[in-house]
Every structure is written in structure tokens, then in C-alpha cells.
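Problem statement: downstream parser choked on a complex file, so we are re-checking the raw output for the adenosine-5'-diphosphate-glucose run. The parser issue turned out to be on our end (a line-ending mismatch), but while we're here, posting the original submission so the record is complete.
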Amino acid sequence: MEFRAMSRLIVISNRVQPAADGAGNQGGLAVALSAALRESNGIWFGWSGGETDHFTGHINFQRHDGVATATVDLEPQDVEEYYNGFANRTLWPLFHYRIDVAEFERGFAEGYERVNARFAETVQPLIEPDDILWVHDYHLIPLGAELRARGVTNRIGFFLHIPWPPMQLLLALPNHRELVEAMFAYDVIGFHTRDWLDSFLDYVSAELPGAVIGADDIITLNGRSIRAVACPIGIDTQAFRDSANQPNALNAFQRMRISANGREMIIGVDRLDYSKGLQERFLGYERFLASHPEALGRVFLLQIAPPSREDVQSYREIRAALDGLSGRINGEYADVEWVPIRYVNKGYPRDELAGIYRAARIGLVTPLRDGMNLVAKEYVAAQDPEDPGVLILSRFAGAAEQMGEALLVNPHSAEDVADAIARALAMPRAERIRRWRALMDGVEQEDVLWWQRRFTALLAAPDPEAPADRAA
Ligand code: ADQ
């Protein structure tokens, strides 16, 4: 399934972050989308991250290493209601099963609709008849419907990077039906896993009585058919492996080894976000220390967690809670030569990160809920094939569906996490190699280019079984 270069691709996402060719410091998503955009001479459209007093729809066109970008500024009220509000205080928590922190405000929903309409209005004049459009993530669910309402008949795909919630949770969203019906404006909708896709189908069967779910997850509603697909994202495995062998990575690896001073290192790398299960992780590690006194002074946890979304209260709260928890655990167990948790609130260049992953005996990836989780894949890709570390992975990360050779844990259970740490530390080299090899095969085969090609191929080629009706 090759991407057909004859159609130009237009990528639309909340933020626009193109990657330079072969750049070492970019995430895999930016690399894959940039490659597809270069190949098809496409455009990446989205919010600039900047603000303006009055939205004018003025587009700032730029070119970054062969990738054309088109960005718009938003009004402060848009940012508050659409981005900080509906996207990050309503949908993000609800879709990560955190109905307890989700906030439902009419103003947020209005801002979300308004910005999606503004995006549609602004991007429409750029669209040519043969273009295919690929919309990304929860910020822009209604964008396809807004485009159809303006007469756009191009193929439009949508990919959700976060989980799709169980039906009973989604029902708590006041405008749930409208949101789901808007998904029917797309031609292809993608999820990371079968689980998220099944939750979507559950909702459709229960709440949209006219919908028919056919073979290959083709769903028909009111005469329009869309194809739903589970298409797990990967990392740019080759580039990540290469960067693990660059001087910066080797340097970081050496420095970590020296600073570890013979102790085993456990690594955690996450945006500071309540979905990542950081408090539960610290508690699981504390349980491990309490039940394995022989490990005191011989292991440490390096948790790298750069702050994110600090305009949102729940993110400020989790930061304060983690400061307190790490302080308490260190206060309880540290001695003059050893602290059990090194807790660092900043980002690192990707090549350094690769070296740090490689120096860690355990990759501890324990989100409470995660659409996929790329850190798990990066940890695997960075390992030394002769002496690989062990991945401990939450069964609630989308990545668990592909990564069954990891030690899968329930992140809510401190005992489960503690037992997995003990098991990983004691794991013989032969078993570590066997598990790592199986994981690495998957990370190599299903990388980010595979993901991008698979999705765009489905989108570019209308499904032969699907009815030809593409009217809005
Ligand atoms: P995120 O929630 O951001 O992504 P994740 O998939 O783990 O989560 O990706 C995070 C990326 O940021 C990784 O590439 C990681 O290396 C990088 N990163 C994290 N902390 C860093 C640090 N301190 N320094 C440098 N880099 C750091 C969302 C969804 C996920 C889904 C992705 C892609 O929430 O479930 O996997 O999109 O679809």
C-alpha cells in the first residue's frame, strides 16, 4: 500500500510543527507528516500558537525545510474556550476516563465550534479538487463537518491520538451526539487500537439507531459511509536508533553511567499530565523500596517530566502533588550518598534522551490511560541488543496491544508495579534479550512511516465496498 503521490496532502492539526529532513530533535509524528507533505508538495495548516485581538483569517505562509505551513492566530477568548477549555478541560479528561476532573461549560463548547468553523473558513480557499485532507486529534473533531457544510467534497480523514472513551462516559458530555455525528463527515476515521475503535462502535450501535455497522468496520448513517480503522502509530525507529549512536547520545549514556555509579537506573519520561499515572508510579516504586530493603542504595528512579498546560488548574495541582510525593519518599529513604528519586521538570533533546534510555535497566511506563504512548517504543528502540533493559508497561496504554512481551502491569496497583520492578531487576539476560527482540521487531515493522502510509493509502483509495455516495 503505497501513498499515491499524485494527490496533494493537506494536514490540519491544532499546532503546526514541521520537522527538518533527518532532524534528530523532532517527534516521530512531525517527521512522518513532514515526509508525506514533502512527497506530495502538501500544506500543513493550523494554529500559530499566537494571539490577535480580532480574528481576521489572515494566513501566515512559511516554508520549513521543504514543508509548506499555513498558520493563523486566534483570539484570546478562542484560546481560553477552545484550547484550554473544551479541548483540555473537557475532552482530554473525559476521553482519558477522568470524568471527575472534566469541566462542562457551554462557553467552552461554543468556543470549540467557533474555532472549528474559523479553521474551515480559512483553510477552504487553499483546497484544490484532488487534494486529500487529513485532520488530527480531539481539538478538531467537527472540522470535517464544517468543511462539508461549505461544500468541500474531497476525501477527508480524521485520526484520534487519544483514547475513545467507553459509551457510558461519553454520555456525560452534553453535546455527545452532535460530536459523534460530526465524525460521519469524514471518509476514514482512525484510532490507535481495536479497544478505542470498539468503544466508538459501542456508542454508534447504542446511540445512533439508524447506523449500520458493516464488514471492515464500514459504518453507514443517513446514506453516508465512513470507514473506521485501528491504525497504531509508531516512532521513527531508524532515526531514533541512529540518534542513539550519535555523540550526544553516547555522551549522555556515559554521563548517566558515571552518575549511576553502579546502581541500576529506572527511567520514566512523560509530559507532566494526570493521565500518565505519575503519582501511582511513585507510590509503586515506594512500595518496592519498602518491600525490598536490599535494594536501598542500589537502584534509583529518574523521572523526567516537563510541565505542560500550566494554564489549566488540574495540571498545576498535579505538579504540586508530585513535588510533595517525591519529597516525602526521598525524605523517608535518602541517605547522604543516595536519593531514591531524581525528579527533573524539564525537557531533553531527543538524542540525549536516547542515551539516557539506553543507560536504564528498566523503562517504567505506567499511564492510567494513554492513546498509544511513544515513550515505550522509544525506550525499546534505544536499547543495546546485547544487554537490553526491561520495559514495564501499563496495560491501559494503547501500546500494550502491540507490546505483549513487556511486563504488563496494572498501574493502579502499587503491589503490581513493585512486583514488576523486582522481577525486571532479577530478569536473566537471555530472557531480557528474548523479550526485547520480540518488542523490537514490532517497533521496527510498525514504525511511523508504516502508520502514515497505511492511513493515507486507505484515505486516498476509496474502498471498493463503500457506497460511492460522498455527498454531505
Ligand atoms: P503524548 O501524550 O504527548 O502524545 P507520548 O506518546 O508518550 O505522549 O509522546 C510524548 C513524546 O514527547 C515522546 O516522543 C517523548 O520522547 C517526548 N517527551 C516526553 N517528555 C520529554 C522530555 N522531558 N524531554 C524530551 N522529550 C520528551 C499523544 C497521546 C499519546 C500518543 C501520541 C501520538 O497522548 O497516547 O502516543 O499523542 O499519537
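For whoever reads this later: The two ends are 28 Å apart (CA to CA).
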